Amino acid sequence: MPAHVIGSDADVLAADLVHEHLQAARAAGREPVLGVATGSSPVRIYAELARRTASGPHSWADTWVFALDEYRGLATDHPASYAAFVERHVTRPLGIDPRRVAVPDAMAADPAAECRRFERVIRDRPVDVQILGIGSNGHIAFNEPGSVVDSRCRVVQLDAQTRQDNARFFGTIDEVPTEALTQGISTILRARALVVIAQGAAKAAAVRDAVEGPRSSACPASFLRDHPRVTWLIDEAAAAALAGAVSPAGRPG
Ligand code: GLP
Question: CA 20: distance to chain centroid?
Fold first, then answer.
């Protein structure tokens, strides 16, 4: 698994990778699909994509945008909902048609059926490049520790650690939902390419477990090493616990 310490160039490199993979899809005659993560880590990537869109010839008219997950029971107009996040940071700045955006429906009367529908959406139109963050407990999307590698879209209970970490987006921890709808690990691994961004000391242990620890449900991100095209963009603080050498800033091979 390649691991790269990129520092402040991470956003530029991630945006380059997004454009490359979406272009490859177009060259193969497909309408490209961008998979987007929420959280603070990828926000600067989306800002870089928006900057390029405002100043260059990039068109997103043919692009689909799929989210990884959503809090169960949170209305789409709640500012902490992932539907609101995707609109605020991705689809509105990039000018993407809302009909080309898919986020699990947090309010579905039958959330299990909604997860099956969302899994089909992704199966019918596989993601070309998926941006991912990592939780401080090693989660990807909302696949908490204990998640198995062949998991699909499903309803999950959120870890106490995740609710604590994400309380900053809500008034208090009590307002953080206890459940979510999430792509499974096998769903995520079907994307053609993965770009994982991890920044800050709070992610150091999770990055170490994901990259160098046992491949195990104890750290769901450790299953990313099953994927042939995963690029880790890790800053110095998040890389601090790694024992192995990491590449200096540069373009992954
Ligand atoms: C949430 C999301 C994850 C994201 C994680 C890390 O829990 N469900 O997809 O990777 O947060 O967020 P942050 O980048 O804010 O640390």
Answer: 18
